[in-house]
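tool_call: predict_structure(chain=1)
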Amino acid sequence: MAANDAIALYSSDATILYKADVFRAMALPSGYTMQFRYEKKYLAPQFHDKYESLKHKTGVIFFIAGNDVTKKISDRVLTRYSIRRCKIIDVFEDGTTKLVILIIELDSFVDCELDESIRHTEQSPLYFVSALSPHKQQARQWYDQVKKIESHFPGVLFFTISELLSEGTVIKPAYDSRRRLSLFKIKEEANYTLKCSCYDREGGSRILEIETNSSDIYYANLFESGIGATRDPRWLPLTTGTLKTLSVPVVLRFYSPTNIIKKAQEDPNLVRLYFFVYRSRCKIYWLGFLSVLTVLGALFTQISSKNITDPPSLVLIGIKLLGVVLFGFCASEFYRFFGKTSLYGEGAQETRRPIGEKIRTHPSISAIFSFYKRYSLGFFPFYKRHPLGFLIASYILVFALITPYYIWQLTRDNPRLFVFVEDPGAYVDVAHAFLQGKVSVVTDPGPRFDSIKNPYDPVQREQMGAPYPWDYSYYRAPDQKAGHFYLYFQPGPVLLFYLPQYFLTGAFPSQRWVVFLASEIDLLFFVLFLRLLVRRYFPNTPLSLEVLLLFMFGLCNLNNLLQAAVGPYQVSICTGLTFAMGCFPFIILALEAVAYRWIWMGLASLCAGFAFGCRPTNFFLFIILGGTWLFIWKKEGFRSRTRFVVETVALALPMLLCYAASAWYNYARFRNILEFGLTYQLNGGEAYMYEQFSFKYVLDSIWCYFLQPWSPIHYFPFVDIDGDDWYPFLYPDRMRMPPSGLLPAFPILFIGLAWPFYIQAQSPLRRNHVGFIGLLLTLWSGIIILVVSMFYAMMHRYAAEMMSPLLLLVSLTLLMRRQASPFRTWEKIILFLLFTYSFYLGIVYGLQGELRWVEFKLHNLYGWPYAL
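tool_result:
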């Protein structure tokens, strides 16, 4: 026999046992094993005492019909049916029974035609295990094979267990060599789905029964009242309970009762499915970790200041709040461990209704939920994968951890976050000017400053000794003798934050307060973006991944870098990032809206206009909105002229009004609608000496912003984000204070490059929209990276503008990957390492900032070294 020859394994209708073997070979799932038993004389001579030669060979199971042993061999009319492909994984001779046992692993169904006919003896085919040289093989489905042999199985309900699923992933059976059988390894307290298909030639009146030997597994038999049709596939829920031991074997028995067959043991075609239910060791470790967290939470709540008469500091309040959060989180987890609900009834999943369900199903509460489900935007999937309370509690927990961190970042060296003061920053000068009907700040340059020949040259300004506000712009029209000071930043934060609060409270907010509000709104916009993606495109996303992505955005978007040293630059960048982020959830709503799409288009356009009004680098958001408009109308066609006009106006008008207002503001200040004041900036002379925007800066910027490695240091936080002073693309005529590259600091950004590889794994109904969202985020990331890279100044703070769209790409990629299938163990390990590393570097960015705050603080407190 050639090494690649297959093996023919025969069974027949000579006895009920032989027929049952064929029935089980058709009923069991792929990858499952079963035993075929033969006397040694029925093996072909070349296999006698050479059982090893059969191992790992592929084979085909055949069914011989008409093998009536009561008739002479010459009177039998034999019909051969090929059933299923298999693989022989073990062969041995049992010394007790003198039988040769073949352990075969089932594979796909197949039709197989042979080159030679079967020889006969007086009783049966000569060999039941022989070499097979197939002439032709063709793949078949289970139903095709059933139709071939159904006439030889009268009054039998055919069924097959196709697969066992866990959250969409097929669980393969494992072969236990010690017990010589296959079993499914499943975890305790987990939900599974068993796909089962039935065929009843009598019209669907027959019943499929399922029994089990264990109280640790629960199922819902959807066939217990009958098949309901000639053939029908159904997905049976399967749940494992809490084990009393580390593991337990479980058997499910499938049989079809009749007037004669009352019990499973009486059915010759009984099919057994073996399971191994085990408890994960991670749960034991998690229980120990929760115990440690509970102790820490209790300790944190007991911390107090040395002098009890002193008012508690924000840090002390934060520690106590963290203790309460830890204690509450651990209490909920302990309840999940030990507060199990009872289950009743054999094979049923009836549960004692929890208090939360009783409240939720109360008529009045149910009416409120129904109203919400009908009229709300549906940000939380109340009736889908996650219970309402757990979902909201998880998001509140994340905000409760990130918000105190933001507050600490903004108040660690100045506790004036919540104090509204009269003169907290440069934007207040603009607010005062607006209240007086001016665009120039109230401060007068004076004759000495006006007399400077070139006021933008720092040397001439120093020689004249004329005072001036740093980083303001000075402009004097050719027809004017005196100039004015202007804040060259756009007035968006003044109109959106400063003046509204002034009208409400009578005082202007501090710059820290504005950055705090913008950071929180940015986080809320990301939550909305994430929830819309999960609900509309990625329903298989577990809540743990959502929470992880929310932590990622909160800790790695570099808002904490802006919070480390707050000034007008940080206010401008943070508010611009916030409203740029706000465009994308409204774009998703516009893509999916059936009615009132113009509302979402208008809100996306308004966010784009506000983003530009806060930070001019967001000017190119009109490309993103224009692409959305083209995608929608290319998909739907121009079927309604009125709708087309309304949605086009809604998408364009708010943004164009903001652009027009900015152009007027620029002209009122500098007599040029395209001049934002950078040319007339009063600082160290960089804007005066250097070319402001140029492609020649791009290579240098790409290296510094993305590739430059950080430097290790021997003291806390052990990382210097300023990196090494090595620039292979150094352009000397440039202002620079760059951070370390984003890719060495945040390797999770590499994940964002992989989203195109998961497009085909998405649902065909969602694939186009998901791909379009990926293209929009990629396009916006490329645009903002190019704009920032062309700017003559290179600063830490500008890295935050590039980080936000890149994190959106990372989020989209991970959601697409998880929708395709659950993460494998090695993927979880890699993600854990990447996220842990990136979270730490994100916190270090906030600790060091642009002023290396933490090093000076530790030096003053403990004498630690610092680098100048």
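agent: The chain has a mean pLDDT of 80. Proceeding to next step.
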